[in-house]
Amino acid sequence: MADPITELVGLLSRLPGVGERTAARLAYHVLGGSPDYAHALGQALSEIHGRVRRCERCKNYTSESVCRICLDPRRDPHSICVVARPQDLAALERGSAFRGHYYVLHALLSPLDGIGPDALDFASLLTRIREDAVTEVIVATPLSVEGEATALFLAQELRALGVRCTRIASGLPHGGELEYTDQVTLARALDGRREL
Amino acid sequence: MADPITELVGLLSRLPGVGERTAARLAYHVLGGSPDYAHALGQALSEIHGRVRRCERCKNYTSESVCRICLDPRRDPHSICVVARPQDLAALERGSAFRGHYYVLHALLSPLDGIGPDALDFASLLTRIREDAVTEVIVATPLSVEGEATALFLAQELRALGVRCTRIASGLPHGGELEYTDQVTLARALDGRREL
Predict the structure, then answer these.
(1) Would you tell me the crossing angle of helices A35-51 and A20-32 to the nearest 10 degrees?
(2) Contacts B50 to A, Cβ<8 Å
(3) ipTM of the prediction greater than 0.90, yes or no
(4) Average pLDDT rounded to a whole number, residues A129-152
(5) Strand, coil or helix: A176
(6) Which of A128, B40, B103, B179 has its CA 20 to 30 A from that of B69?
């Protein structure tokens, strides 16, 4: 049987951004702390997959069959914002700038990694669009190669159906300095300029 | 009932060096990963306090009643190295520079925090010293205020018993530059100079 501390350090070091040394520090911290905390954290981790499922409508994480956002009558069901991951949805919700509904892809197109349109569950997005008479789909996938490829794919498919498809803006961030901004972002900021 | 993700983020953010954002990143990583991993990590954390106890002789973490170091016949039982925490012992063992036995205090004197000699379990260290006819106690507590206070306390008590008590050296670390070394360390390095 492996040494329990070594075993715990090994498991902790598989977390993102946690190396062997940090994992050891965390393990010793837990061991030096209260058993109640260790147990509560262990329990929460063990149970997380069982307690969290995907919303039937938007695929966001939820503990019910349909999430709170999808059930909220004050939100506009005719506008859907498409994101790659639940944490992207959470980031948008922190600002409450968007009052429509969401759809979480849980994947991005990446031909080099063999991830094609099948991975996106595009069919249930189409069902949503039809059932809720959606008028606009805002594609808020990241501004990465995969995010852009996915946005282009969605735009093609949705325009063929006559649904308006928009992309979140690319440009300088709030407080951004031109001097320290990369050329692609500068070109996009110029390209996306608006009337003053 | 609280949202399971929020609950997990709250528990993770109590780990050292883990803020709210890192905790959220870890939680989403675990949720996006395999349930088997989440379960294994949760199990390891839940069980760690039950599977790890303190060695009856040296108080180091072990899964048996007496740890491997205390049972190792090739090690010298007449020399004891006193450390504050199990991770300090682990650091010394990585270098295998010390071939004697250990004693883990699990505390340091800190009069300002109300931590006096009672917290150190000095009595069982004394029993060890007597039973094993220990000839030298090397105090390897940290070079902090609390570590130094604890070292002075141990030196006083042990000298009264006629046991040789030494302190690990203080000076420039391996590869250390004088230019970037603080004044206390420089003074100590001069003070602890040895014949060449």
Answers:
(1) 120
(2) 35
(3) no
(4) 93
(5) coil
(6) B40
Q: Which two tokens stand for residue A162?
A: 């006559």
Q: Chain A within 8 Å of B58 (Cβ-Cβ)?
A: no
Average pLDDT over residues B149-160: 93
Looking at the DSSP bridge assignments, the partners of residue B61 are B54
According to DSSP, residue A17 is labeled T
Q: Is B44 in contact with A14 (Cβ distance < 8 A)?
A: no
Domains defined for chain A, CATH in brackets: 4-51 (1.10.8.420), 77-167 (3.40.1360.10)
Number of Cβ within 10 Å of residue A120's Cβ equals 22
The pLDDT of B32-51, averaged and rounded, is 96
Q: Are strands A164-167 and A136-139 parallel, antiparallel or unpaired?
A: parallel
What gap in Å lies between CA B76 and CA B85, rounded to an integer?
A: 21
Distances (CA, A) of A175 to A171, A178, A179, A180, B129: 11, 10, 12, 11, 65
Q: How many whole angstroms separate alpha carbon B91 and alpha carbon B79?
A: 18
Q: A22 CB near a chain B CB, below 8 Å?
A: yes
* Whole-number Å distance between alpha carbons of B112 and A27: 28
Q: pTM surpassing 0.95?
A: no
Helix, strand, coil % over all residues of chain B, rounded to 5: 50, 15, 35
- Pairwise CA distance, residues B136 & B82, whole Å: 11
CB A7 within 8 A of CB B44: yes
b/e sequence B11-48, b meaning 16+ C-beta within 10 Å: bbbebeebeeebbbbbbbbbbeeeeebbbbbbbbbbbb
Please tell me the predicted confidence (pLDDT) of residue B179.
87
Residue A1 has pLDDT above 60, yes or no: no
Q: Which of B14, B59, B16, B45 is nearest to A7 (CA)?
A: B45
Check if B24 contacts A (Cβ < 8 Å).
yes
Residue B192, token pair as written in the block:
């602890």
CA–CA dist B60, B12 (Å, integer): 26
> Using one digit for the tens of pLDDT, what is the confidence trace for B84-124?
999 999 999 988 889 999 999 999 999 888 888 888 888 89
Q: Which two tokens stand for residue A118?
A: 């099948």
